[in-house]
Design brief:
The structure holds two protein chains of two kinds. Chain A is α/β, with parallel strands linked by helices. Chain A has two domains: 80 residues, GMP Synthetase, Chain A, domain 3; 73 residues, no CATH class. Chain A contains five helices and seven strands. In chain A, the strands form two sheets. A four-stranded mixed sheet of chain A has the order 4-7-6-5. Chain A has a three-stranded mixed sheet with strand order 1-2-3. Chain A is elongated. Chain B is mainly α. Chain B has one domain: Ferritin (Up-down Bundle), CATH 1.20.1260. Chain B contains ten helices and no strands. In chain B, helix 2 packs antiparallel against helix 6. Chain B is globular, with a radius of gyration of 18 Å. The chains are: A alpha/beta, B mainly alpha. At the A-B interface, loops of A face helix 2 and helix 6 of B.
C-alpha cells in the first residue's frame, strides 16, 4: 500500500484536461488524499459549477490509482471551500503565461465582484504590453475571458480570477 | 411544518430555475448575434447547469427516496417543476433574452449573497461557490442593458419593449407563502421584502444609466412555484426529456 504522500505525488502528475501544461494539483482541483483504513479517498473540487472536465479528471484519478493496484478507493467532489484562482501556484501562473494564457490577478472578493472594469495589471502573454482590450468576459472555457492586445494585435485568453 | 420538507421545496425551486434557464439559453447556441455572445451564453448556460446539478442532487438527498439530479431533471413531469414562469419564457430577440436574464441575474445575485449566511450548511457552501459565477452573469447582462438602452433609437426601443413585456413575470420572485415565512424564521433564506428592495434598487440603477423607464407595476403573473406553468415549459421538457424517456437508462459508453 502506498503512503498518503506517495499517492499525492502520483496524482499530482495528472494534467488538467483543458490546460494540460499545469496539473490538477497546481490548479487547486486536487484538494486532499485521505486514507480511511484500507480505502483511499481523493477529494476534488470543480473550478466552476458546470466544469465539464470533472468527469474526465475523476476517470484519470481512477486510472492512476488502478495502475498502482489500488482497488478500494472513492473520488469525492466538494464545493466547500469554494475554489479560487488564488490557489493557483506562482509557478503554475508562470507556466500559464508561457503557454499564452494571461494568469489571474489576486482575487479580492469584495472589490472584484461586480467590478465593471476588470483586471488592472493584466498584460499580454505574448509581447507583455499592458495595452489590452477585453473582447468578451466569456472565453473558450468557463474559466477564461477573451482579450486582445492593442500592441501586437494577438488575441489571448485571460484566466479570470474568481 | 417540517424543516426538511420546507427546504426541499425551496431547493427544488432554485434548482429548477437554474435548470430551465440553462436549457432555454442554450437554444441560442449556434444562433448568437455574434460569436462572442454565442460563447458567452453557452458559458452562462453551463454555469447554471452545474448549479442546477448541485441543487437537485441536494433536493434528492432531502427527499430521501434515492433520486439524484438526473432523475429530478429527466423523470419529473411538468407539474412537478417549481421554476419561475420568468425563466421558461421563450428567448425572443436578443433584447428579450437580455431583459429576462438581467432580471433573474439581479435576483440570483442578491439571493446568493444572503444565502452565504444561511443556517443550512450546503446552501452556504453552494452560495459561496456560485456567487462568483453569477457576478459575471450580472455584469454581462447589465452591460448589455446599458448598451441597448443608451445605444441607438432602435436598440433603445427594443430593450424597453422587452423590459415592459417580461415585467409581469418578475413579481413571482418575491411572492411569499407559509414556506418562505417558515424558512426565513429558521434562518435558511433571507427576508423576501429586503431582497426585493435590493433587487429594485439595482434594477433602477441600471435602468437609469441606460436611459430606460422603470415599468409601472400592474398585474404580476404567478403559478410556476406551484407547478402551474405557461405552455412554453411543456414543449421544452419534451425536448429535454426525449432521449431519457425513449431510451430509459441509455448510456453513452
Amino acid at each position: 500500500m502506498l503512503s498518503k504522500a506517495e499517492i499525492e505525488n502520483l496524482l499530482s502528475e495528472i494534467p488538467d484536461p483543458e490546460i494540460p501544461i499545469i496539473s490538477i494539483k497546481e490548479l487547486g482541483i486536487l484538494r486532499d488524499v485521505k486514507l480511511n483504513n484500507d480505502e483511499v479517498e481523493v477529494v476534488i473540487t470543480p473550478t466552476y459549477s458546470g466544469c465539464p472536465a470533472m468527469r474526465l479528471i475523476e476517470d484519470q484519478i481512477k486510472e492512476a490509482l488502478g495502475e498502482q493496484g489500488i482497488e478500494k478507493f472513492k473520488v469525492t467532489s466538494v464545493l466547500t471551500p469554494a475554489w479560487t484562482t488564488d490557489w493557483i501556484t506562482d509557478e503554475a501562473k508562470k507556466k500559464l503565461e508561457d503557454y499564452g494564457i494571461a494568469p489571474p490577478e489576486k482575487f479580492s472578493p469584495d472589490k472584484s465582484l461586480l467590478d465593471p472594469f476588470g483586471p488592472k495589471d493584466l498584460r499580454c502573454p505574448h509581447c507583455k504590453s499592458k495595452d489590452v482590450k477585453m473582447v468578451s468576459q466569456f472565453g473558450s472555457t468557463a474559466c477564461k475571458a477573451h482579450y486582445k492586445c492593442n500592441d501586437c494585435l494577438e488575441p489571448f485568453d485571460y484566466f479570470k480570477c474568481i | 411544518m417540517n424543516l426538511n420538507e420546507a427546504k426541499l421545496q425551496f431547493v427544488t425551486s432554485q434548482g429548477d430555475d437554474a435548470l430551465i434557464l440553462s436549457h432555454r439559453v442554450t437554444e441560442w447556441c449556434g444562433h448568437g448575434p455574434e460569436l462572442e455572445e454565442d460563447i458567452a451564453l453557452s458559458n452562462i448556460g453551463l454555469d447554471l447547469l452545474g448549479q442546477a446539478q448541485s441543487l437537485l442532487n441536494y433536493a434528492g438527498e432531502l427527499e430521501g427516496k434515492g433520486r439524484n439530479a438526473d432523475d429530478m431533471a429527466y423523470k419529473r413531469i411538468e407539474r412537478e417543476f417549481k421554476n419561475l414562469l420568468l425563466v421558461e419564457q421563450p428567448n425572443g430577440n436578443y433584447a428579450d433574452t437580455i431583459a429576462k436574464h438581467f432580471f433573474y441575474d439581479v435576483y440570483h445575485y442578491f439571493l446568493l449573497l444572503d444565502l452565504k449566511n444561511s443556517s443550512d450548511e450546503f446552501l452556504r457552501g453552494f452560495a459561496e461557490k456560485s456567487i462568483k459565477e453569477v457576478a459575471y452573469h450580472l455584469r454581462h447582462t447589465s452591460q448589455w442593458v446599458i448598451r441597448f438602452g443608451d445605444g441607438t433609437e432602435e436598440s433603445h426601443e427594443k430593450i424597453q419593449t422587452a423590459i415592459n413585456q417580461i415585467w409581469k413575470y418578475t413579481g413571482e420572485m418575491f411572492m411569499k407563502d407559509e414556506i418562505s415565512d417558515f424558512l426565513e424564521k429558521e434562518g435558511v433564506i433571507p427576508n423576501i421584502d429586503a431582497l426585493k428592495a435590493k433587487w429594485e434598487g439595482k434594477v433602477r440603477e441600471v435602468l437609469n444609466e441606460s436611459t430606460l423607464k422603470y415599468p409601472e407595476t400592474t398585474f404580476m403573473a404567478k403559478g410556476g412555484r406551484d407547478g402551474i406553468h405557461s405552455e412554453n415549459l411543456g414543449y421544452m421538457l419534451t425536448d429535454m426529456q426525449y432521449l431519457v424517456r425513449t431510451y430509459p437508462d441509455a448510456k453513452w459508453d
